[in-house]
Design brief:
- The chain is α/β, with parallel strands linked by helices.
- The strands form 7 sheets. The chain has a 5-stranded parallel beta sheet, sandwiched between helices. The protein has a 4-stranded antiparallel beta sheet with strand order 8-9-10-11.
- The relative contact order is 0.08.
- The C terminus is likely disordered.
Amino acid sequence: MAENDSEAATTNTAEENDAKASSCGGRKTTLPPWNKPGPATVQFNTGLKVMNSLTRQKEDFVTMSGSRQLTWYMCGPTVYAESHMGHARTYLGFDIIRRILEKHFGYDITLVMNVTDIDDKIVERSAERKMDHLELTRHFEQEFHKDMRNLCVAPPTVVTRVTEYMKEIVDYVQQIIDRGFAYESNGSVYFQVEAFENAPNMHYCKLSPEQIHNAALLAEGEGKLTQEFASEKKSPRDFALWKKAKPGEPVWESPWGPGRPGWHIECSVMASDVLQKLTGQPNMDIHSGGIDLKFPHHDNEMAQAEAHCGHNQWVNYFVHAGHLHIRGLKMSKSLKNFITIQQALEINTARQIRLLFLRHRYNAPMDYGDDTMAPTLDLERKFVEFFHNAKAFLRNRTLKENQFWSEQATGLQKLLAESQIKVDDALKDDFDTPMVLTILSDLVKATNVYMESSAENEKLGLVVMNVATYITRILSLLGLNGLETIGLSSGDDSASGGASREDHLAPVLDALMAFRSAVRDKARNKDLTGILELCDHFRDEALVPLGVRLEDKSDGSVWKLANPADLLREMEQRNSEIERKAEEKAAKEAEAAKKEALNKLSPADYMKQLKLEDGTTPMYTQFDHEGMPTHDSNNEELNKNQKKKAQKLFKTQQGKYEKFLKSEGSNIAPSLGDVGV
C-alpha cells in the first residue's frame, strides 16, 4: 500500500486518536499481548530500544534469528502524482534509521518496498487524463525514484509492483478463503473480521483497537470506488480482498470473476512472498509506514497475513513516522501549502532538508517552514565552518612538532570519548538524532575554543583530527555526505574520476599566471595601490570559481575549500549588496541635490513650481503680487484651510531661501517681507 498518498492529512493525528481512551461496543479496548522475539540464541544484541507501535512503548530490539540479519518491509508510494514532502517525511526519516542500523549497529538489512501501481486513485487519475494506467504509474514511479535519489535516500533491497503480483495475490486470497477467514460476494471477496477475531490466539486491530468501529476510517480504507458494494458485506467491518471490476476499469482474471486487488492485500502478499523466498519465512522483524495508516491499513495487513500463514505475530516491531505540517498546518492543496519534493529542493539542498529531519524524532510531528529551517541552516553553517577551521588548523601541523599533551588537549580528548558514549546511548534510545546533533554541536564548540585559545606551541593536531574524524563519521552515517557509490577508488589520491593531475591543476595555474602577469605590470609602474586591488580581485573574483575561499586574518591569510556554487552565490549576494548600497547612496545624493536646488528658489518661484501627485498638474494657478497662491489647480479661489497651508509652505521656503542667501555671502536682502500665518 502506498505511503502518504493523500493530498491532505486527517484533522486529528494518529497520535491524538491513540491517546483517546474509548469504549467500543460497550467494552473498553486494550492492546493485545505482544510476544518478544525469542530465538534459541541471541548472537547479536546491541542494546537498542525501539518504540514499538504494537505495545506503544520502547522495547528491546532483537531479530527473529538472534543474528545481525534483519528483515524489514516498508509501505511504498501510490504513484499517481508528484511526490510531496509528506513522502519525504516517511522515506527520508526511515533512510536515516536504516543507515543507523547498518552503519552504527552493524545489522545486515533486507529492505522490501512495494509500489502501488493500481488502486482507486490511479483508476480515477488515468481516466481524467485519458491515459493507460501503466503509462501513468510508470511515469510517476520514475519521478518518485528520482526524488529519492535527489534526497540521497538509498534504494531498498527489493522493489515490488502490484501489477506484477496478480497471480500470487489471487492464490493468496484463495488460501484465506480456504482457511475460513474470507468469503466471495457478487464477484468480490471480503475478509471476515468476526471469524478472524473468534479464531484461537488471533487478534484484530492490534495497533489501534480504539478505532475498531470508526466508520469513517473503515470507509476510507475501502476506497471511493468501492462504497456502492458495501451492501454485499456480511458486516460493515469486513474489507475487500478482491474488488469486482466496474466497466472501463483495468481488470485481471480470478476464480470470482474479473477484478483487481483490494487496498490492503498487496502488502501482505508481496512482503510474505519476497521474505519467504529470501529468508525461508514470511514473518519480519520491522514493518514501517506513516502513522496515518495505522488503521485500517496496517491493522488489516497484519490480519490478512496472520490468517494466511496461521502465525499470530506477522510483524515483531511496527514503527511509524510522525506527521509533517507546513508552517503549522496540515499540508493541503486547498490551503495552498502543498509542497512537492522537487519544489522543496529548489529552496533548500538535500542536506539541509535531511538536517531538518535529524533535528526531530522520526516518530514525532514535524513542522516544515521558515521557523524550523532557519535554525537548521545555522546548524549547517556551524558544522561547515568547523570543518573549514579544522582543515586550516591541521594544514601546518605535523607529527614533527611537539606532541606533549597539555591539560587542554587531554580535556578535549576526554570530552570526545564522553561524547562517543553519549552518541551511542542516544542512538540506542529509539534513534534519538536530535540529541546526537546536540552532543556533536557541543563538541564542535569545545574544539573551536581549543583551536583559538590554547597556546600556539601547545596545540596538538592529532586531538583536533580525532574530533573532526569522529564528527565526520557520525554525520556521514546519518546521510549528510550524500549517497555512497559502489566500487573501489582509482588508488591515486591525486586524481579523481580518471582526471589527470594536469586537469586538476590547470584552472588554478591559469588563475595564478594571470595574477602574476598583472602584478608584474603594476610593479613596473610602481603602482602599489593597483597591486593591492589585484590581490583583492584575486581573492574575491579569481578564486571563487575554483571553490577556494581566502580569508585575511591579523596573523596572515587562510585558504578554505568550499563548493564553487556556494562561493559564487555569496559573491553575487555581496555584489548585489554593494550595488544596492551604491544605488541607495546615489538616490540620497540625488535627493539632497534636489533639496539644495529647491532651497535656492525664492518663495514665489517655489510656490509656482509645486505640482500635484501626478507630477504634471500645477498645484496653484494664480498668485498675488508677493507670489502667494490665491487659486488651486482647478482655478478656484483657495478656502481658509488651503490659504493656511499655502502660507505655511511659503514661510517655510522663505526660511530656507534666506539661509541659502546667507551661506552664499550675499548682502542682498530678501525682497519680500514676513507673511503672517
